[in-house]
Amino acid sequence: MSRAETPEAPEIQVRGLHKAFGDNEVLKGIDLEIRRGEVVCVIGPSGSGKSTLLRCVNLLEEPTKGQVFVGGTELTDPDVDIDAVRRRIGMVFQQFNLFPHLTVTENLTLPQRRVLRRDKATAAKVAAENLERVGLAEKADAYPSSLSGGQQQRVAIARSLAMGPEVMLFDEPTSALDPELVGDVLAVMRMLATEGMTMMVVTHEMTFAREVADRVVFMDGGVIVEDGTPEQVIGSPRHERTRHFLSRLL
Ligand code: ADP
Ligand code: MG
After folding, report:
1. In what residue span(s) does the ABC transporter domain sit (predicted)?
2. Which residues line ligand 1 (CB under 6 A)?
């Protein structure tokens, strides 16, 4: 079965997901559903499998076992057109990975032209709109090296948005930034959440998780230990492992 059966099917659905690297079982049976427009923050200690889970959701890693659905399409179906599905999923990493030899606008137009086959004028228009959205219209002709880390990350987000994704995945988008630059990036993510983007965000920013997330998922040792509202998971965690993790963040 490669299509979900109901129109209200979750935007992202992970069923019985396992991922091993050799003998190292990193994900040990993950079940997760994210509805359209929902913002889910994934928290947990280093090495708990957060990045691997995110990478399995767009098949940057191939699951060992289990199923992943995005927008009703099963990514883990061997017959799926994975490139077509991936176009619907934006991903933003800790490292921004902008092309240093291209201007900001060129960084945004290149993937639109290559992957979506947009013509030059359309790609430029979409680039300008998305730079405006992240507050960097005036940097259109700048090179990445002349921008702060926070500005570079906002360009990376705009580049992703220019592809028109249904879902955005963020893997510790502010972890490489100086503290004073974190706020501007979180503000852009907040705006996306308000606009109704479906988002899965691995983060250590507990204030953002509390204020923006509809749900918080705590992972440890390759399993989901707790999944609930921010008030439940951060405010009054039920599990000792969650309490221990949160106490070390303070
Ligand atoms: P987190 O993002 O929560 O810090 P990761 O998903 O990055 O955790 O990593 C979980 C475990 O998987 C770690 O033990 C890590 O060494 C291992 N791992 C991640 N990616 C690979 C890979 N490509 N090859 C081998 N081991 C990996
Ligand atoms: Mg990680």
Report:
1. 12-246
2. 21, 24, 26, 44, 46-52
